[in-house]
Design a protein that fits this description.
Helices cover about 15% and strands about 40% of the residues. By secondary structure, it is mainly beta. The strands form four sheets. Strands 3-2-1-4-5 form a five-stranded antiparallel β-sheet, with no helix packed on it. A five-stranded antiparallel β-sheet has the order 8-7-6-9-10, with no helix packed on it. A five-stranded mixed beta barrel has the order 11-12-13-15-14. Helix 1 packs across helix 3.
Length: about 280
């Protein structure tokens, strides 16, 4: 059976001037256009081809293998955003359509997001960023392991992360700062491997390591601002989240360490590097 959206190993049954027909038997065949036919191909040969639809909605084969097949998930780059949806590069000449209703955020051209391939109601291949149901459970991680994955949705519960782009993961809402967005590849730490095989994650590192990173970030921003920030350690949590991507408590700890090490001075209306 020739299956839409999948890579199949099919036999060559007919050769014409405009291509060859491949299939599992003589009755069920699909065209592989001439420009896609490997040199030297003959009757009886078997080829790995991907099955999709042409502009007339007819099944057609290609020897170009896309980045994802039916039911698979992968990071795809947006090539164009239109009034009807977005189009992503998935390795074929015809870009993959992602309808607005299948997007979990407003996508941007040139940015990459996690996308799954599915068949829509009109029996055409399309992409969806709603990949939760495509995620897998796991038992290969333990508490404390550092992992990497792609954020595919942000909701009231927190940020949903595809660990290794395939396993269920969740960062709690309290750790989701404004600089975290859908499509980001993020490193996190496993806080719990749940009985159902899903992972609870923390976006922060162990306290002693996170403190060092926060100190470096604040110093880097201070240096970029000419050695002075126009607010003190009582600045609002919203501004800290916006400018530093960290919690207010983490900001105060890092500034306090810089102050104790005599690297900064805290004024009523500013924080400055001690020269």
């Amino acid at each position: 059976m020739i299956e839409l959206g999948k890579v199949q190993n099919l036999e060559v049954f007919k050769i014409t001037d405009f291509g060859i027909y491949v299939g599992e038997n003589k009755e069920e065949r699909v065209l592989l256009p001439k420009k896609q036919v490997p040199e030297g191909t003959k009757l009886g040969d078997k080829l790995d081809v991907f099955i999709y639809k042409d502009s007339s909605d007819r099944l057609i084969a290609t020897t170009s293998i896309p980045y994802i097949s039916l039911g698979q998930v992968g990071r795809l780059t947006i090539k164009e955003v239109t009034k009807i949806g977005a189009f992503a590069d998935w390795g074929l000449e015809k870009d993959l359509f992602i309808p607005f209703r299948e997007q979990t955020c407003a996508v941007k051209e040139g940015s990459s997001y996690l996308v799954a391939l599915y068949i829509d109601k009109s029996e055409r291949l399309a992409g969806t960023m709603r990949v939760y149901n495509y995620m897998q459970t796991t038992d290969i991680y333990k508490d404390g392991d550092e992992v990497a994955g792609t954020i595919y949705e942000i909701k009231d519960l927190g940020a949903f992360v595809a660990v290794d782009n395939k396993y269920f993961g969740l960062i709690p809402k309290k750790e989701v700062h404004s600089n975290i967005k859908v499509g980001d590849v993020i490193k996190s730490r496993v806080t719990k491997l749940r009985p159902d095989g899903k992972l609870d994650l923390s976006a922060v590192k162990p306290a002693y390591r996170q403190m060092s990173d926060d100190v470096e970030k604040i110093m880097s921003i201070l240096e970029g601002m000419g050695g002075r920030l126009p607010y003190n350690d009582k600045v609002s949590a919203e501004i800290i989240d916006r400018d530093f991507g960290m919690s207010k408590s983490a900001f105060k700890r890092a500034v306090g360490r810089l102050y104790k090490e005599r690297k900064v001075i805290i004024n009523p209306d500013s924080i400055e590097i001690i020269k």
